[in-house]
Amino acid sequence: MVRKIIKLQMIIIVSSYLTALPRFAVQEGTSCNLCHVDPNGGSLRNDYGMSVTSFELSNLPGSDRVTGYTGIINEHLRLGGDIRFLNYNTNDRGQLKSALFPMQADIAGYWQINEGMGVFAEQDLLRGQNEIWLMWTGLPLNGYIKAGKDLPAYGLNVDDHTSFIRGGNIRKKALQYEGLVFSPYLFSPGLVEVGINIGNFNFSQSIANEFINKSGSAGFGEYLSDKAYTTRLEWWPTLGRINGFLGGSMLQQGLIRFNGLFGGISVGNITWTGEVDISEEYASTGTVLASYSEIDYYITKGLNLLLKYDFFDENIDASGSSINRITFGTEFYPIPFMEVRCQARITDITGKTMELNPEYLLMVHIWF
User: Fold this and answer.
1) Which of 282, 265, 252, 264 is CA-nearest to residue 164?
2) For 55, which DSSP code?
3) Superfamily for 2-367?
4) What is the pTM of this model?
């Protein structure tokens, strides 16, 4: 019985918290590539990203050895990783159900071949998946070319993949669809991406093998019209002490089409980030709408409050069912390179008569 409970909760939550925090970029007033090796953010951190996570997040400075850690092995190689554990709790008919399990165990490396070229590789030790790509920088307009195995840069790369704008609920609660396609169980396709950065504008265009509703293939035999094309544009304006962020992305794979707007604003101790997406021909239920909105309040160094609202409608062209979820809690950084997250989530289904139990999460994240 215990094994069944643990397996069930792992399916529901195991995909959470796997990438980056776009709100940090909004607070800094610049894109996610400021802190990460990947120009689209997420995964392995660069020198500045390691400096931020060691000095600026935690209230305790730690030892010189800890704060001086950079992940640099030698002048050409950088290594890093992320490890997460989750304690999941819910009350079912007066009985507490609880599970503790590993959520993430990734190791990544970046080999700087020369000043303008590098190779990135990441292995997901839990799910056996991987990414690998080569990037050439130093092109005109601060441009780059990236080629290899990776997901297209669509939407906000939020760190909670149970958000409906990403993968949503892998084990459905009531609807046929409860999220978009961007689950961590999705195989990364072969991809070529070109990007430029002009002042506070970022633009990228990619072409990838079919990956939506596919188990992953080499892409040989596909017509060009069947490939996945993704366009992304970002603008990062600043007015005094107010930092803003506005962007949009479009993804087309055959008849399947995703269109999304996203953005954020940071004023003083308050930061808001949000996204809304409309998808056509992706779900058999019709045209779907997914949205995400999060407000974060900075209390003191190492401690934040958050309030998040997720919404998903499986068919906006008809009066059917939808799912929405409110999440609130705290983020605590007790020491450098460690995060503790406490959250409560309340989920509601419209269009169906059913009651869902609140969920209580305690997550510990360690990175290096």
Assistant:
1) 282
2) I
3) Porin (2.40.160.10)
4) 0.87
